[in-house]
Amino acid sequence: MTPQISQFQYLAPESNSTPIITNFNIQAPISVTNFLTNIPDHYFNPHPSSLSNNSTSDETNEQQTNIICERKRRRMISNRESARRSRIRKQKQLDELFSQLDHLRTDNQSLMEQLNHLVESHERAVEENARLKEETTDIRQKLDEIQFENNSSSALLSSKFLEMLYNEL
Question: Three-class SS string for 134-145?
């Protein structure tokens, strides 16, 4: 069974710039197939023959509308392509940043290991320095004692020598 049309609406051509919606009630339903195949060509013409004096103006308007639509379509395509390039560019930047992050983390780890080795070396040097200072202090003290003993014994020998000389004279 083919679909039947019992009512339809259409917009009448603009007059006074207000669209008029017209309803048609069909007494006897018409087959859709029959209806669509038997429509005269002038029903599809956007500019009825009664408006032929405005056809040039209407054609110009239609061309301008087509140009505007084409520009919009091109702009939409251009915007989509631009957005795609932008997404690719941002992804590339993100990948580069992640690569940089990995490199910097590796460098940071290496520097931390070097710093730890230097801190350990510094601590050993400070300990060695403290030990050497203590050793130097001990050696100076012993040297001072030896010099004091030598001076004391020299003074004692000198005084004994002088005493011997005095006794001989």
Answer: HHHHHHHHHHHH
- Of the candidates 11, 6, 38, 3, the one whose C-alpha atom is nearest the C-alpha of residue 25 is 6
Q: How many CB atoms within 10 Å of residue 62?
A: 13
Distance (Å, whole) CA 129 – CA 139: 15
Burial of 77 (0-12, 13-18, 19+ CB in 10 A): exposed
127: DSSP letter: H
Q: Compute the distance between CA of residue 15 and CA of residue 33 in angstroms, rounded to an integer.
A: 32
Contacts of 29 (CB under 8 A, 6+ apart): 4, 5, 6
Give per-residue pLDDT as tens, 88-136: 999 999 999 999 999 999 999 999 999 999 999 999 999 999 999 999 9
**Nearest-5° Cα angle at 36, 40 to 43:** 30
* Tokens encoding 134: 């203590």
pLDDT digits (tens, 9 = 90+) for 123-139: 999 999 999 999 999 99
Tokens of 24: 């048609």
Bridge partner list, 53: none
* CA pair distance 22, 10, nearest whole angstrom: 6
Tokens at residue 91, please? 């992804």
